[in-house]
């Protein structure tokens, strides 16, 4: 990739609830010697506002972020949140490349810069809606997982474009808690039925919600945490 600079957008969930994802991502970037900047103060991307019909508020947030990115000269925007990634892709960000962490890790893997240590485990992967069905990002996270020596990747029957939602997206967790919990329990059931020991995803919302639903029945990990723990060097 050469010397490329990124602006890393943490996102609300990874700032206030699942800070370990931000911490893991920053450690990964530093160990890979990626040049990056952090925003002094982030404004929510507006994903939930857009997806719950609060268009006026969402547009106000969008304009504020676009002005901030332009003022800072942002050319490459990186995030570990699929909701932020998808929302920024829908902004009018002329000349700005938007990437999810999965993209960067996949590029580094292909270039031989990311090497992962052996770990004997059976895992299954949950496709976040905003990465999978919305943007067709299915193979990249799986290639990263398959690169781990000793890891066995098993698929749930409902995966890729047919994946079941974790139940947290689109404001459902906030507005329809019972429905949201039922969906997440069903997804944990899918993962348990696959025979996997660990359920891996690449979304702080999915991670938070599925971890809660698992209730200790199985381990749930965000891909950033797994990569951080297994990086060589």
Report on this model:
This protein is of the alpha/beta class. It has two domains: 102 residues, Rossmann fold; 115 residues, Rossmann fold, CATH 3.40.50.1860. The chain has eleven helices and eight strands. β5, α7 and β6 form a beta-alpha-beta unit. α2 packs across α11, α6 packs across α7 and α9 crosses α10. It is globular, with a radius of gyration of 17 Å.
The total strand number stands at 8
First-last Cα distance: 19 Å
CATH domain fold name of the largest domain: Rossmann fold
CATH architecture of the largest domain: 3-Layer(aba) Sandwich
Strand content: 5-15%
Widest sheet, order of strands: 2-1-3-4
What number of structural domains do the residues give? 2
Low-confidence stretches: none
Binned, the helix content reads 40-55%
CATH class of the largest domain: Alpha Beta
The global form is globular
Mean pLDDT level: 95
Helix and strand element order: EHHEHHEHEHEHEHHEHEH
Question: Major sheet, described briefly?
Answer: 4 strands, parallel
Radius of gyration (Å): 17 Å
Going by helix content, strand content and strand pairing, the class is alpha/beta
Q: How large is the count of helical segments?
A: 11
């Amino acid at each position: 990739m050469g010397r490329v600079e990124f602006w890393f957008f943490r996102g609300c969930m990874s700032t206030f609830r699942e800070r370990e994802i931000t911490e893991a991502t920053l450690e990964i970037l530093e160990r890979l010697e990626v040049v990056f900047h952090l925003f002094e103060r982030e404004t929510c991307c507006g994903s939930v506002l857009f997806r719950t019909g609060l268009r006026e508020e969402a547009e106000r947030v969008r304009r504020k972020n676009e002005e901030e990115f332009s003022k800072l000269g942002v050319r490459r925007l990186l995030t570990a949140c699929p909701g932020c990634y998808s929302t920024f892709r829908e902004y009018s960000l002329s000349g700005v490349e938007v990437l999810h962490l999965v993209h960067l890790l996949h590029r580094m893997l292909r270039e031989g810069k990311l090497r992962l240590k052996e770990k004997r485990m059976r895992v299954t992967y949950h496709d976040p809606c905003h990465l999978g069905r919305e943007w067709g990002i299915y193979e990249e996270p799986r290639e990263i997982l398959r690169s781990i020596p000793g890891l066995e990747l098993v698929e749930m029957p409902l995966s890729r474009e047919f994946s079941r939602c974790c139940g947290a997206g689109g404001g459902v967790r906030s507005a329809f808690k019972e429905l949201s919990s039922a969906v997440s329990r069903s997804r944990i059931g899918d993962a348990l039925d696959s025979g996997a020991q660990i359920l891996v995803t690449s979304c702080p919302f999915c991670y938070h919600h599925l971890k809660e639903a698992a209730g200790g029945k199985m381990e749930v990990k965000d891909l950033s945490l797994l990569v951080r723990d297994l990086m060589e060097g």
